[in-house]
């Protein structure tokens, strides 16, 4: 049974101070110049109760550009230098429950076979304090994937806002407990009947299991070409996505030294699968769009036992041509 | 809106075009590109002030062109794009027909000359806010400008939405995707982003139709369109030529005049 | 005491005029500052702003770009094309925050050995007074975790 | 401290052989002999070879695991990494990560006839397994190799082809496309699928291993089917683009399969369960 506490509005500031002075970085969804970004949280006012950040928080554990290796050229020889990820202890405060669940989808890829120390080191240094969603929009579809706006999965602590201000904190993991230990004296026992703001209502648009079954017979359907006719083939959807994990590895060097970098990549881009010979296994945008859908909703569950999507809807909001994933999936699930 | 629907119906019924590229209802209040191929879907076409994306991007897409002759719902910048694409030999008159949205009505423009005439009557000033921002930036010190762009481009994730949404970025193989040598770094670190956006702006100087679709496409809200606007204005100021004015103009950056006047070469 | 700052200058010059001009400077035994590294290209028409960016990000403090005078291009019009391109990319670089005081443009013919010496000296003095150009170099290391 | 799975071995180029225009073979020895002693691989596997400063590129290990102390790779100069590799000299250091991927099931093939069919630059992956089988010759019954290239100049491993041609314990058929022959050419002229049909290797108690350009594979498979090879008796090896080789970067993903983990070796039966995205 998880522990529960109450945290008042006034004590959030004290808590933030305690965390910062313990050397931890506190990040979370925050309004910056009219956009919601994952940015440093300094005061209670920074904690944004509703709305989704444009880009997900995955960069904390899987940065958009990260160094994997360094080397020096020394005549004919090469001196390799291993790289240790510099992972600052980080609290993700007020993360939406959908995003909190997304770390699992990253974890299964980075660790299903060999272990990726870069991801693992950063993940080990990250504590997730989720915040129940009390508002959703037309791009949200967590409930279609078997989750809900107050899902505890993936959070070390889940906060639920109280009508009277402040939060109920549900401590879910050891990392959560460690965090609570830092906040001794700040937390109070939970109210007997916590009067929380009700979680957002997100009407399910389809059923993920049913979708997966439908996909099995739909690979050659004209649906994918139809849906993707307006797709521009950019990577906006993949780069804002909290679960998209595909990456590129690039060398950058001068005559003396070099480094091997990992950078986000997207299966929606033409050159993703393009061979040097000119052959491209997924030459058409419709094939690439289909890959994106199948990878997340068919291949992930078949292979890794989890969905490659959390229903946060960031891709739909970021798409320059309004490719709404929820609608497209509902369409795929409802047909034949 | 009804005028547009009936025009689309007429064109599709007569077989004049096979597809009408236009705007339809999207998520919430959004408008999204739609491709009307059946007469009974003509009613899906929407025209209102939310229709701001330049749809000319689709005119060079193989999947769309494969549908057959195209009609395109055109806002002023779309008309300019058509002319610029024509000038760059990317579009033939017989491939496209513009349905220009002017004064709340629809005007069918079937020839490049007709489009050119129409474009000449449309004021081509960029938005007031954008001009103000460019002026503000030009008034800054170079150090301030550097700091401004470092902060803005710091958010860039190199999703290439700006490139993909641009009607003039039709190259089959973009220089960003060429790696022998890897001239511009692939990764979206600071220098990779700066060089990418500099190259993009430079490649659009003299070709940009100032639609601002790239800036609108940016998921993280970087005003990348200011870069191409500025480059375009630089060309206009110095060479008196602007992108998207005519289907017959040479690209300003691939030509020269012996008496081009500069002030900085010693 | 630290050594006084000596700028690294990179010069992109065309093969036919400025490179020959610089050669003449040497054979005429005209002394000029040794800070400059000369990179010879077939024609100024080849000189892209990315060369300038690469020079800065790899440690140059200043850049000199020079070729044939108008009407003297070995390839008839390479320098005219180059001039047009410079007229645009110079403004764009400035707009994006690159310090133009560190980029010197010039026409130096094969006969202008003295002008080359003068040009290098002046550009080098200007950049020496400005100090090291670290801004682009810093960018080259930023944004990697 | 966890190991860095992206850290390559350093390999010294021991020899360079020019095989065909733009095609080279490197023999690579471990710069650190201790690493070399601990290193093992099985035929069919591949690796990521790096030209430092340019990046990594994926090729099979073209040598046989029965030959110890080195590995070989054969590549065509095509992209950024391979052009840089082509500029290397003997003694230069390159990187190698691997071995990755699945293997040819030699144990399963014991007591059977083997038919290898290769086209062009696709002989290298089969060369590893061919040598491996020749080195374990008594495991198998008849061994037939059909190899074709566009022209005589494009044939790789010319010296080995000569040796194989002289061997009495295997049958080698080399062919070039019509128009690719040269005066004095004693091999066959014709496309690989036709030649396979012509020589009609027996399908009973046999396996076929096919590797080549997509068009060759596409046209050879029906021929083998006609000859009576079952879908579980036909093997091929895929070459999707890869970045990590570890089942993470997503590039080689085809259907629910990662070519880098579940492949590169597939039977035709397995291949038919995947979308044709390779």
3D structure, described in words:
The complex is a heterotetramer of chains A (336), B (266), C (145) and D (278). With 336 residues, chain A is an alpha/beta fold. Chain A has one domain (3-334). Chain A has 10 helices and 11 strands. Chain A is globular and about 65 Å long. The termini of chain A are far apart. The model of chain A has no long low-confidence stretch (mean pLDDT 94). The model of chain B has no long low-confidence stretch (mean pLDDT 95). Chain B has helices at 2-14, 62-65, 76-87, 112-121, 128-139, 142-153, 161-165, 190-204, 213-217, 225-239; strands spanning 19-25, 31-36, 70-74, 96-102, 105-109. Chain B has a 5-stranded mixed sheet. In chain B, helix 3 (76-87) crosses helix 4 (112-121) and helix 8 (190-204) packs across helix 10. Chain B is of the alpha/beta class. Chain B is globular, with a radius of gyration of 19 Å. The longest helix of chain B is centred in the C-terminal third of the chain and has 15 residues, at 190-204. The N and C termini of chain C lie far apart (35 Å). Chain C has a single domain (9-138), classed as Rossmann fold (3-Layer(aba) Sandwich). By secondary structure, chain C is of the alpha/beta class. Chain C has 5 helices and 4 strands; from the N terminus they run E-H-E-H-E-H-E-H-H. Chain D is α/β, with parallel strands linked by helices and 278 residues long. Chain D contains 8 helices and 15 strands. In chain D, strands 10-9-8-7-11-12-15 form a 7-stranded mixed sheet, with helices on both faces. Chain D has a 6-stranded antiparallel sheet with strand order 4-3-6-1-2-5. Chain D is globular and about 55 Å long. The relative contact order of chain D is 0.14. Chains in contact: A-B, A-C, A-D, B-C, B-D. At the A-D interface, strand 4, strand 5, helix 3, strand 10 and strand 11 of A face strand 13 of D.
């Amino acid at each position: 049974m998880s522990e529960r506490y109450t945290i008042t509005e006034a004590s959030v500031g004290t808590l933030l101070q305690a965390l910062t002075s313990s050397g931890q970085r506190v990040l979370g969804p925050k309004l910056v110049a009219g956009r919601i970004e994952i940015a440093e949280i300094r005061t209670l006012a920074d904690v944004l109760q509703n709305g989704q950040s444009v880009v997900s928080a995955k960069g904390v554990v899987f940065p958009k550009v990260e160094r994997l290796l360094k080397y020096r050229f020394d005549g004919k020889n090469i001196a390799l230098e291993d790289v240790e990820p510099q992972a600052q202890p980080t609290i993700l405060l007020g993360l939406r429950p959908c995003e909190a669940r997304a770390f699992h989808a990253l974890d299964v890829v980075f660790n299903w076979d060999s272990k990726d120390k870069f991801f693992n080191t950063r993940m080990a240094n990250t504590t997730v304090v989720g915040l129940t969603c009390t508002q959703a929009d037309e791009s949200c579809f967590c409930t279609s994937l078997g989750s809900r706006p107050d899902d505890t999965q993936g959070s070390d602590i889940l906060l639920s806002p109280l009508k009277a201000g402040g939060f109920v904190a549900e401590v879910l993991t050891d990392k959560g407990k460690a965090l609570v230990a830092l906040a001794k004296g700040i937390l109070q026992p939970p109210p007997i009947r916590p009067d929380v703001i009700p979680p957002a209502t997100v009407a399910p648009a389809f059923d993920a299991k049913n979708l997966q079954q439908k996909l099995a017979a739909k690979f050659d359907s004209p649906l994918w070409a139809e849906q993707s006719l307006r797709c521009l083939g950019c990577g906006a959807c993949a780069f804002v996505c909290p679960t998209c994990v595909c990456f590129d590895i690039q060398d950058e060097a001068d005559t003396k030294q070099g480094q091997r970098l990992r950078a986000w990549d997207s299966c929606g881009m033409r050159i993703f699968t393009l061979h040097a010979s000119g052959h491209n296994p997924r030459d058409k945008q419709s094939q690439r769009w289909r890959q994106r859908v199948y990878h997340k909703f068919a291949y992930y569950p078949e292979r890794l036992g989890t969905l490659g999507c959390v229903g946060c809807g960031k891709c739909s909001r970021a798409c320059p041509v309004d490719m709404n994933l929820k609608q497209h999936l509902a369409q795929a699930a409802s047909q034949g | 809106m009804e005028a547009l629907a009936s025009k689309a119906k007429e064109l599709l019924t007569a077989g004049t075009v096979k597809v009408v590229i236009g705007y339809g209802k999207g998520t919430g209040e959004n408008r999204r590109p739609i491709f009307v191929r059946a007469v009974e879907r003509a009613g899906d076409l929407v025209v209102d002030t939310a229709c701001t994306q330049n749809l000319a991007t689709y005119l060079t897409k193989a999947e769309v062109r494969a549908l057959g002759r195209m009609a395109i719902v055109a806002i002023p910048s779309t008309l300019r794009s058509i002319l610029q694409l024509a000038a760059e030999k990317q579009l033939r008159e017989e491939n496209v027909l513009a349905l220009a949205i002017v004064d709340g009505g629809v005007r069918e423009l079937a020839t490049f000359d007709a489009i050119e005439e129409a474009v000449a009557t449309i004021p081509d000033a960029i938005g007031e806010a954008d001009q103000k921002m460019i002026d503000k930036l030009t008034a800054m010190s170079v150090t301030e400008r550097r700091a401004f762009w470092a902060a803005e481009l710091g958010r860039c994730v190199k999703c290439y939405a700006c490139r993909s949404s641009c009607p003039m970025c039709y190259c089959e193989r973009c220089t960003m995707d060429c790696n022998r040598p890897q001239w511009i770094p692939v990764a979206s670190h600071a220098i990779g982003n700066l060089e990418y956006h500099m190259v993009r702006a430079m490649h659009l100087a003299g070709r940009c139709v100032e639609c601002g679709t790239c800036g609108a496409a940016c998921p993280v809200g970087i005003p990348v369109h200011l870069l191409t606007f500025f480059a375009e204005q630089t060309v206009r100021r110095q060479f008196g030529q602007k992108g998207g004015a005519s289907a017959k103009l040479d690209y300003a950056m691939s030509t020269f005049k012996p008496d081009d006047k500069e002030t900085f070469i010693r | 005491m630290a050594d006084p700052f000596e700028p690294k200058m990179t010069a992109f010059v065309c093969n036919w005029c400025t490179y020959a001009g610089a050669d003449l400077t040497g054979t005429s035994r005209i002394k000029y500052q040794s800070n400059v590294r000369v990179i010879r290209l077939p024609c100024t028409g080849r000189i892209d702003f990315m060369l300038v960016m690469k020079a800065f990000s790899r440690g140059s403090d200043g850049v000199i770009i020079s070729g044939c005078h108008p009407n003297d291009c070995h390839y008839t019009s390479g320098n005219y094309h180059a001039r047009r391109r410079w007229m645009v990319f110079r403004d764009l670089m400035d707009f994006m925050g690159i310090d133009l005081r560190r980029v010197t443009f010039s026409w130096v013919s094969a006969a202008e050995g003295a002008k080359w010496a003068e040009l290098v000296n002046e550009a080098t003095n200007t950049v020496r007074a400005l100090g090291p150009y670290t801004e682009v170099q810093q960018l080259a290391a930023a944004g990697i975790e | 401290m966890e190991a860095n799975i992206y850290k390559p071995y350093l390999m010294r180029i021991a020899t360079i052989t020019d095989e065909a225009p733009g095609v080279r073979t490197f023999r690579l020895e471990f710069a650190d002999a201790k690493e070399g002693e601990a290193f093992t691989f099985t035929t069919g596997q591949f690796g990521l070879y790096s030209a430092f400063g340019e990046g990594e590129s994926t090729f099979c290990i073209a040598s046989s695991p029965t030959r110890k102390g080195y590995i070989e790779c054969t590549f065509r100069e095509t992209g950024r990494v391979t052009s840089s590799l082509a500029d290397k000299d003997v003694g230069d250091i390159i990187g190698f990560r691997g071995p990755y991927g699945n293997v040819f099931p030699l144990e399963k093939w014991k007591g059977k006839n083997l038919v290898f069919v290769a086209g062009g630059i696709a002989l290298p992956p089969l060369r590893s397994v061919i040598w491996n089988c020749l080195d374990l010759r008594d495991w198998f019954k008849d061994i037939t190799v059909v190899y074709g290239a566009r022209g005589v100049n494009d044939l790789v491993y010319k010296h080995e082809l000569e040796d194989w041609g002289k061997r009495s314990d295997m049958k080698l058929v080399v062919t070039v496309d019509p128009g690719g022959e040269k005066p004095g050419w004693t091999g066959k002229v014709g496309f690989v699928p036709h030649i396979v049909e012509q020589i009609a290797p027996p399908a009973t108690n046999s396996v076929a291993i096919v590797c080549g350009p997509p068009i060759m594979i596409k046209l050879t498979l029906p021929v083998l089917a006609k000859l009576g090879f079952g879908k579980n008796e036909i093997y091929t090896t895929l070459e999707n683009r890869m970045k990590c080789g570890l089942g993470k970067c997503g590039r080689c993903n085809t259907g629910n399969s990662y070519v880098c983990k579940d492949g590169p070796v597939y039977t035709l039966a397995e291949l038919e369960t995947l979308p044709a995205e390779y």
